[in-house]
Signal recognition particle protein
Amino acid sequence: MFDTLSDRLTSVLQNLRGKGRLSDADIDATCREIRIALLEADVALPVVKSFIAGIKERAKGSEVSQALNPAQQVVKIVNEELVNILGGETRRLNLAKNPPTVIMLAGLQGAGKTTLAGKLAKWLRGQGHAPLLVACDLQRPNAVTQLQVVGERAGVTVFAPEPGNGVGDPVDVARRGIEEARRAQHDVVVVDTAGRLGVDEEMMRQAADIRTAVQPDEVLFVVDAMIGQDAVTTAEAFRDGVGFTGVVLTKLDGDARGGAALSVREVTGQPIMFASNGEKLEDFDVFHPDRMASRILG
Ligand code: GDP
């Protein structure tokens, strides 16, 4: 995912090696190169601007360390600023004081929500929870069956509307799913919702209605990192239309340039909580800003 960006940043920073004191001109030149690398990686312009401003200010300021040479100091600053735009601390899942914890998934069709529901359920099981998956994507043909398949693979129960009951009302299914979780003592409920191929008012309304009805502890916006700048505009649309408390980046295994990953936190103000990097249930992990920054800096 970040190969090109990573190569570019590494070589920019390598150019500083062996220099004694860094002049303001050295720092300006380095920042210019970093700016180009970020823009080429599809990072949103306002994010690039604040990132560069942060680096410049700190690199030119009086951050002096006896232990590091000037080049190492710049690398350290770039690393810390990367961690910052990726969200700083790892954000843990917010668990309800009175279970079940309700986690709602929202995002465009094809973003990877249903796959993620299975991954999250498997991960939750590994953390000692007893999750229930609730199938509220009643729009896409096969979405319910697909959730049942991933649920089975993950070894978790799926609550779905009874077949033959017509299309059904997703808000009603969500409510009944949570009742079922209480009854059968599941401590976490993951609600899969319908997406559309593009941002769509009806989809937003439906997701917002589910949110209002079940008051989830977390609303996770699931976004395909391969869609580049569109990830940012889609995130803004979901923030305004539904609202969310965290982001899940999917398809980090793709060869996209990584700009989405670097922009979405800063633009929406919500943390990236999980990352998915493949089609298998195991290709999933908690998102750690510091580890991602280290990966980018090689
Ligand atoms: P939904 O419409 O949001 O529920 O999306 P799906 O879960 O059906 O996923 C859409 C497609 O993306 C499927 O073919 C998934 O196998 C694939 N997919 C999901 N997550 C990942 C991922 O992290 N990496 C890759 N390469 N493919 C993924």
About this structure: The first strand starts at residue 101 and ends at 106. The CA atoms of residues 3 and 27 lie 24 Å apart. The pocket of guanosine-5'-diphosphate is lined by residues 107, 109-115, 195, 250-251, 253, 276-279, 283 (CB under 6 Å).
